[in-house]
Every structure is written in structure tokens, then in C-alpha cells.
Specification:
- The chain has about 280 residues and is an alpha/beta fold.
- The chain has one domain: NAD(P)-binding Rossmann-like Domain (Rossmann fold).
- About 50% of the residues lie in helices and about 15% in strands.
- It has a seven-stranded parallel β-sheet with strand order 3-2-1-4-5-6-7, with helices on both faces.
- α1 packs across α7, α3 packs parallel to α4 and α4 runs parallel beside α5.
- The longest helix is centred in the middle third of the chain and has 26 residues.
- The protein is globular.
- The relative contact order is 0.12.
- Bound molecules: nicotinamide-adenine-dinucleotide (NAD).
- The site of nicotinamide-adenine-dinucleotide has 31 residues, from α1 and α6.
Length: about 280
Amino acid sequence: MTAKAGAVVTGAGRGVGKLVARMLVERGYTVLVTDVDEASATATATEIGAIARVLDVRNDVAVQAARDDIVTRAGRLDVWVNNAGVLVTGPAWEQDAATRRLMIEVNAVGTINGTVAAIEAMRGHGGHVVNIVSLAGITAVAGEAVYAASKHAAIGFSLSTLADLRLAGVRNIDISCVCPDGIWTPMLHDKLDDPAAALSFSGTLLQPADIVTAVAAVLGKPKPVTTIPRWRGALSRFADTFPRFGLRAIPFMVAQGRRTQRKLSDASSGRRGTPPDGS
Ligand SMILES: NC(=O)c1ccc[n+]([C@@H]2O[C@H](COP(=O)([O-])OP(=O)(O)OC[C@H]3O[C@@H](n4cnc5c(N)ncnc54)[C@H](O)[C@@H]3O)[C@@H](O)[C@H]2O)c1
């Protein structure tokens, strides 16, 4: 067993996952950077000083093999971050079955596969599973119905499994869900002209570093659900508690999101990938 504990991040080739993996390396973990895209996993791992492994989170056998790999290399698995995600916008009836299945399988089944594999390796010494969900896991999101369904599944599964662990007397394995508003990553870079993605732009457009800060915070102090920013989390919960109010508010939020999309499109035309704050 090496001095450093093991950590796995899924979908870590780019975006949020890449920065979370970097933070874990900086904290001294032996990190497995996994992604379905082998080239980005390899490039990221080389850049941040981690180990690359191609992994499609939909494949439970491959997820278990990645888990065994980190245990062999690091001696112990302490942190598993289920971050891999896919967003295809549009009403569900305009999407083909394969597209709908893709979102459910990556965002929900992938999170289940990772969590279960991690728990098996964490039994005894304990550990922490961090699931990157979304505010779409809390309330309705017009234009992102199947994505919202997959994220509701991810959060329902996470909290229920946490309850099962506690009922089984397991107190040293934590599951923390991090639920951000829209984040300026490649997931949204191509959606400035997409009306169906308006709600992702209707609140505070976050930077990936904001999510890294939240993940670092829950690693220090596990928390079942963290919403970012907190006010949007409160609004999402209110809309979910009073769905008629929530549904009435959606057209106004879509209009707000479209305004932000147009502003960003004007500001960043020719500069896609540059954060909207210009940093
Ligand atoms: N960007 C946003 O607005 C936003 C908002 C809230 C939550 N999230 C969530 O944050 C997480 C990170 O997203 P991001 O914004 O960095 O997006 P991103 O598109 O930049 O990164 C997602 C990563 O997941 C990988 N991936 C896709 N399918 C996979 C699979 N089957 N197996 C393994 N990896 C796979 C991709 O290759 C990519 O590297 C996702 O779970 C996403 O749903 C994103």
C-alpha cells in the first residue's frame, strides 16, 4: 500500500471533472482520470500528474475494473467522483430513443455503477462518493426533460443509498451530491444559440472552479446535497414544492436565459471556450 490514497473521477477528460481531478492530485491522492474519450483522459492525466484509463460509465464491469485498478495502484480507494454526464436538449418527443437512453444510462446508470463499485471497495476503512448532479435533479427544466429525469434519478438513488448505508450501520462511507446551476464548460459552449438550453443560462452561469470549491468543501465536511448557488437551489426547491407556481415561472426564466445567451453570444463570438467573464 502506498502513502497516498486512491481517487477516481469519471468524465475527467475535460470540463468540471478535469479540474476536480487536478484538485485531488494537489491534495495528494493517487488519481485515476477516467473518460469515455481516451484521448482527453490521457491528455488530462499527463497534464495533471494522474493515471489515465478509458472508461464508459454505462458498463458496470468496466467500472468495477477501474475500481480494482485504483485499489491495486493506491492500496485503497478513498474518493470516487461520479462526474461523467451528457446533455442533449429538446423536448423528449423530438429525441430518438437512443438519445433518451444515452442520457439516462450515462447520468443515472453511470452514477449508480460508480457508487456501488466504490462502496464495495470502501467497506471497512470508509470513503466518500461525490456525485455531480445538477439543479435539474431538483426541479423541472423545460428543454431538458430527459436530462432532468436522469438527474432526478441520480439524486434519488444517492440519497436512498446513503439512507441504506446508515440503516445498515455503515457510518464511515459518505455520499455527497453537488447540484450546480449552469456551468460554462464544453457542455454549454455549443448551446448559446439553442433556445431549448435557455434554462441553463437563466440564473448564475458558474465557472468550473466554483464546482471544484464545492467538491473540496464536501470532502472536508460531507453533505447530502449542496446546491450552487444556494439561492437557485432554494428557488428550485420552491418550484418543486409548488409545481403550478414553478410551471408559471418557466416562460419568464426562459426569456431571461435567452437574454443571457444572446449577450454571451455577442460577447464571445469567435471566442468560444473563453469564460464569459473574460478571464
Ligand atoms: N455544464 C453545465 O451547465 C452543468 C450544470 C450542472 C451539472 N452539470 C454536470 O456536471 C458534470 C460535468 O459536466 P461538464 O459541464 O464538465 O461537461 P463536459 O461535457 O465538459 O464533460 C463531461 C465529460 O463526461 C464524459 N462522458 C460522456 N459520456 C461518458 C460516458 N459514457 N462514460 C464516461 N465519460 C463520459 C465526456 O467525454 C466529458 O469529458 C456532468 O455530470 C453534468 O451533467 C453540468
